[in-house]
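Re: the 493-residue chain
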Amino acid sequence: MKRNISMQNEGKIGKVIRFLLFMILSCPCLFAQAQEQAVYDKKMEWWREARFGMFIHWGPYSLYGGVYNGFNQHRGGAEWIMNRCKIPVAEYRARASKFNPVKFDAEAIVCMAKDAGMKYIVFTTKHHDGFAMFKSHASEFNIVDYTPYKKDIVAALAEACRRHDMKLGFYYSQSQDWCNAGGATARKLMWEGWPNPDSVRINHFTETHRGAWDCLQLDATFEEYFYRVSLPQIKELLTNYGDISVIWWDTPISVSDKLADEMKKELDKYPHIITNDRLKRPNFPGDYKTPEGLVPKVEDVEGVDWETCMNIGSSWGFRSWDNNWKTSETLIRNLITIAARGGNYLLNIGPDAEGVVPDEAVSRLHDMGQWLKVNGEAIYGTERSFLMPIWGECTRKRGKGNTILYLCVFDWPKDGKLVFEGNYKVKKASMLHDGSLLIIRKTPQGIVIDVPVSAPDKVASTIKLELNEKLPSVKIKSNTAKYFEIVDADSTT
């Protein structure tokens, strides 16, 4: 019996020793993980606070306005017109040489973004057509060397952003390039552009040449293109324009892990720069997800940082015949819903060939800015609430020792009683727009709030609910290998 007890004690001691050894060995790893998470959270802090940014798609494709040979481009955004209409390289370059956006005003663009309540701008420094909107020594196909304009658009925008304390990010097409030999070309069928009578031959050519439609595109390999144009231009963007906040990659066709690692090594020199998930999939996940043209399902963005990019109209680049503009109500409610699910809203404008933003986009941005002047507290610096009421959306924010919920009401109750499901300890309820206090009471159905008969705002009225408790923190981890599809078709969401 004594021997059995002794053996049991030895077994217990052994378990304790093994546990202690496990803790000793795992502690450095756990500490390193916690430290890595802290660095990531610090890096993402301003971005999570921002919630709303401006995307700008602009280049010589705006000269076409979505029209080629008298035909409206049949499918896709107008920035894809060279590929979808299979415009020959020499022809597109000749047209691009006339690009002269004399009405572009960087100061006005930045002020427009700021007045709209946007906190950062992401600008297309080079889209898939290969035209650089900045001075580049890697390719003469740029706005300074190739056009009568002779000015560096990126430099002007960077300077204006610094003056107005606006964060600036660069979109850069690291893979596709239709005008510099060797660049990747996504294959699109001829019917997506215009009714070319030579469609059969062209479609066959693109099928056998990895999407290319012009022999000039085949004069170099992709790797030669990468080291001659893409990587040098990335270095130029990172070094020539001051403090950059975001690098926004796109369509990583033909990019190998080796080449992606070359780009990542350059980025590693600037650890503060935030990057999206499109450098190379799936091994280079970046810092945040990029659902395109849609508000994702809650479960698809659980626990990660994400940003919906979307058009105000139906095309990223300027389309002269666009008549499918989203209403201000849709855009404001999109912003609220995205914030309620923990994401950012990157809303796109496409200036015309002279650099003028379409009136329809200007008016929508103005309306959004007006709403945010009153209700911005319910958007900026908020986090996902995990609540989806039937009458609207709910964001939340950390208060001083408590949690604040912002009830953004789309469908105002006709009986003057807003029912909010949940067993929360509520300290105070008030209308956000004027601070007026509201009567609240708990019922078996949840919290009932007596509200004014008429909605203060026909788009979305906000009630501030200050709790007497602190809800558990929302845990956000660094990005994962899961990603959203990259869409190049019209965005009508």
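The CA atoms of residues 168 and 243 lie 8 Å apart.
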